[in-house]
Amino acid sequence: MSSAAPDSAALFVDRGYEVVAVDISEFEKLEGCVTCLSVRIR
């Protein structure tokens, strides 16, 4: 999860998820997000 969203991260932690906060500020400047940087593996 983006480190720019600490309140959202806290909501996930409160629900029992482990959150890994990552600085993606350079991608966010280009209107990218964590979803755009993800690769789904089946």
- The total count of helices amounts to 2
Computed Rg: 11 Å
Number of domains: 1
How many beta strands in the DSSP annotation? 0
- The unreliable regions are none
Molecular shape:
flat
Distance between the termini: 21 Å
**What is the H/E order?**
HH
Q: Provide the residue-averaged pLDDT.
A: 85
Can you summarize this structure?
33% of the residues lie in helices and 0% in strands. It has two helices and no strands.
Account of the protein in words:
The protein has 42 residues and is mainly α. It has one domain. It is 33% helix and 0% strand. It contains two helices and no strands. The longest helix has 9 residues. The relative contact order is 0.23. The mean pLDDT is 85.
Question: What attributes does this structure have?
Answer:
33% helix, 42 residues
